[in-house]
Amino acid sequence: MSERPRFSILMPTHNRADVVGFAIKSVLAQTEPSFELLIVGDGCTDDTANVVAVCADPRIRWFDLPKAPHFGYANRNFALREARGELVAFAAHDDLLFPDHLARLSARLEETGAEWVYSRPLWVSPDGVVMPLCGNLKNADELARFLQAENFIPASCIVHTRACLEKYGYWREDLAEAADWELWRRIIEGGSCENFAYDAVPTTLHFKANWRKRLDPAVTSLVALAKASNWWPQALRLRIDPGGPEQAVFSQRLHDAASGWVEEVRRAVVTVVERLAWEHTMHGLGERDRAREEAAILASLLRQRDAEIAELTDLIGTLGDHATALRMPLSPPAEFREQLYLQVNPDVAEAVQNGEVQSGFEHWLRHGRREHRPLRP
Questions:
Q1: Most C-beta atoms within 10 A of its C-beta, which of 42, 101, 162, 343?
Q2: Is residue 316 part of a domain?
Q3: Dihedral angle at the C-alpha atoms of 258, 261, 264, 265, nearest 10 degrees?
Q4: Do 335 and 229 belong together in one domain?
Q5: Where is the domain boundary, 259, 286, 304?
Q6: pLDDT digits (tens, 9 = 90+) for 82-131
Q7: Rounded to 5 degrees, what are φ and ψ at 179?
Q8: Measuring CA to CA, which residue among 64, 119, 116 is closest to residue 95?
Q9: What's the CATH number where 240 sits?
Q10: 86 contacts: CB under 8 Å, gap ≥ 6
């Protein structure tokens, strides 16, 4: 291979002869033909070497290396240091690339001037449900979560310039896991978080690794939603043949040119994302309406309670008046004179005139003593 390829595609593998052939086939079917495929065997003891040999394409470079520590990051670096392409892509041995994966992401790099680009992730459950995930790193909060908390972008979704390896470094070989995430963060932060781009169109299928015990919780929730809903698009739900890897079914659909399945998938992804956004919006509106209803009910209860408290206050006052009257003598003290009392208490005189109380004496019995009313000028 004398001419320098545009892409170097890194495919590390360890004992997945059952699926690596499907991954290789998806790379060889790329509409962008200028690439070298660096298949890095990390201490493979199964039939992987024969699977690679059967593929027989001059663009394939097979590195049959002894097992390196952890996930074989040292072996990946060995191959990358021999890479000749100006762009680097990553293809997991159990994932599948759509035919225009390299073409789309390289075009996105060119139009944005970015160093690192990724496409929308599509996760595939073992029972054949395809789930689109949303993660736009151009949003500050999503970028912060990616840089600080968790990786939600499969490596197969990513393409970066070859120069990134010289500028920001290679894969950390001393990490037990997640060296891909550590490298992506180093590239993004090294470029002041301004050197990356996003393509919202999916270009890969990401399958659960055989060493994982379970799917990511977010993916598990989407699988449950897909199975429970009657609107989940059929293109995102394939039947898996018993006994065979799910990659076999998806590879067959992917390479059936007459089916137009890739475009069906992309339209279906838009449907799912819009439907999830609609349900979230309706849920939010429902919460708002419920909050309004609850506020109205609470205000009504408060008004009713205020009225009850006012009524109870009046009742207590009346009972107090009666109790005071019962304790009062039926005749006024010797110094009490009706006219003098009304004269010195004009408000009582007005109340008598208006018929609110019968006499100054009645007022004195009810309120006078308690209010320390004067009996004479």
A1: 101
A2: no
A3: -170
A4: no
A5: 259
A6: 999 999 999 999 999 999 999 999 999 999 999 999 999 999 999 999 99
A7: -70, -25
A8: 119
A9: 3.90.550.10
A10: 4, 6, 7, 161, 162
Triad 38, 39, 40: Cα angle to 5°: 105
Task: Identify the CA nearest to 135 among candidates 147, 153, 122.
Answer: 153
Q: With a threshold of 0.70, does the pTM exceed it?
A: yes
CB atoms within 10 A of CB 283: 10
129 SS3 class: strand
Task: Indicate whether 308 belongs to any domain.
Answer: no
Instruction: Identify the sign of the CA torsion 345, 348, 352, 354.
Output: positive
- C-alpha neighbours within 13 Å on the C-beta side of residue 142: 10
Q: List C-alpha distances in Å: 141 to 138, 146, 267, 300, 354.
A: 9, 9, 27, 40, 73
pLDDT in tens, 289-304: 666 767 777 777 787 7
Amino acid at 336: F
* Distances in whole angstroms, Cα of residue 133 to Cα of each of 119, 176, 276: 10, 26, 11
Number of residues written out for the chain: 377
Statement to judge: residues 248 and 349 lie in one domain: no
